[in-house]
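[Q] Does anyone have a clean structure-token version of this?
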Amino acid sequence: MPLSADEPAAPQVTSHEAWRGDAGRRQWYLSVVLPVYNEEKAVREHLGQIHQKLGQMLGRRPFEIVVADNGSTDGTREAVAAVAARYDNIVYDHTPCRGRGGALARGFRVARGEYIAVLSIDRAWNEEFLIHAMEHLEGGTDIVYGPKSHPDSMVRRPLTRKVGSIVTRLIMAALFRRGLPETQCIKVFRASAIPFLKELGSYNYFAEADFALRAYLQKASCAYLPVEVRDFRKSSKVKISSLLEFVVEARHFRKNIWIAGLNEKR
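[A] Here you go.
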């Protein structure tokens, strides 16, 4: 894929870099944002398959794939470029800073679709969810979540990853309020209904909770659908450092945004 004259072409990217295909200026029906970090193998195995599957699902409705890279140091860039060379609707955005939140925030800002979906590069999601989610959005719903805690969801994940999800939900219940939806999950939303996209913080582990809580404060209409999750990434233990970072980010959000937002909501 061609880069503009002021963008680096070095194999190892050390500063922000972005490119999009020849049709990048058009308005898309759907933008699929794929946050990645050192996912060279997954990109080579799955990005082309994801593109093909989306094409089959959406038919003539135009879509783009935004690969939001948050500081990869392996061959992720080259792997994306190899697939993007075959298509004009794959966008690559690399930022050198660490953090899933930063990658998601940038991915949302460069996405040009009427609807935006946050999925995973390893295809740990089922196509049926996306089909039904689009039906809800076209019917007027603002956001569709695919929570793993939904009673009809089918989840296959390592035990340690399940434990991590349970702990983060308990933290959310303690710091905010009970009854909020699971926040660390697949989501699809109407871009025009989410005016706070440019205000999202550059959180790491709290990024998706940031999105869900802001949506709650602005009274966005939501639907919750079961999802099939096939997550086989290895995780030897629940990282205490990650949970601590989540708590710190959550407390920052609660102090600076949540309380003020609740007061305005009343």
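[Q] Thanks! Anything notable?
[A] The chain has seven helices and ten strands.
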